[in-house]
Amino acid sequence: xxxxxxxxxxxxxxxxxxxxxxxxxxxxxxxxxxxxxxxxxxxxxxxxxxxxxxxxxxxxxxxxxxxxxxxxxxxxxxxxxxxxxxxxxxxxxxxxxxxxxxxxxxxxxxxxxxxxxxxxxxxxxxxxxxxxxxxxxxxxxxxxxxxxxxxxxxxxxxxxxxxxxxxxxxxxxxxxxxxxxxxxxxxxxxxxxxxxxxxxxxxxxxxxxxxxxxxxxxxxxxxxxxxxxxxxxxxxxxxxxxxxxxxxxxxxxxxxxxxxxxxxxxxxxxxxxxxxxxxxxxxxxxxxxxxxxxxxxxxxxxxxxxxxxxxxxxxxxxxxxxxxxxxxxxxxxxxxxxxxxxxxxxxxxxxxxxxxxxx
Length: 359
Known about the structure:
Helix content is 30%, strand content 21%. The chain is an alpha/beta fold and 359 residues long. β3 (86-89), α4 and β4 (108-112) form a beta-alpha-beta unit. α5 runs antiparallel to α9 (331-350) and α7 crosses α9 (331-350). The longest helix is centred in the C-terminal third of the chain and has 20 residues, at 331-350.
């Protein structure tokens, strides 16, 4: 039998180009994600961090000591008053608008997801950014992970053929208790985690016509809202798109899963995200490609955490310098992701169609 040989794949992009002359960054919010991902990524990319502020002074001081940040700001107004910098706003969704309202007019800002906790807040944030002429983006960084950048390029090249199936499966034990502020969130799993998968799907497949969803709570986490969901995005009758998301899998690590499989008419791709399997330092991400029944590994330059966090900041800074013409995570685009999340919750609240009587 003749051995099947897969076609060689030309080099795939796995990192966003760096700005030629990065501006100093002022970090507002020094919580767990800032210390686990933002600051390590900026250090790796040699982005200068000029100062840090957190409502808890000790958190800012610890971050400054760990990452050699020269200045700890003693008030939000002091941090927001810095000229010639890019602001990285890493605060909970409900606090984002209050920070944006205090930034200088025309400031450049990268804000942590979600863009507010619901669609109404997201619209107010967009209105604020427009009125204050902010150059504003949302840190939806899964788009910028090495595997996702490579996958998007494959789809752009039609290397997999016409896309017919997108399947996301996340079965993990998310440590929700690390973020006590989430206990007050009326909506939890989609805006604070699965927003990344919905946003990434929008980036590679475009806008869905609608969404079907059921989001549910877990009895073991009575202080938190929804932690699990099943979602179907409507891309017509030729593309199936499904997300099965269980963030409270309590049966140990053996059968945890964190993956996206994209199938086309001539090939397929499988991505895994290791960070979910043992947050925040899980195994490396992986990527595999297939033609027919033969799969091969694609080496990746890094993983979602922390390497993807270089991308949104690089893109924003390159837009400021004129090196990029498109702000990938612009608030106008992030608003569409927030609208999709809202559609999911509306579907979940409405419930399914009752089964007809058997008789």
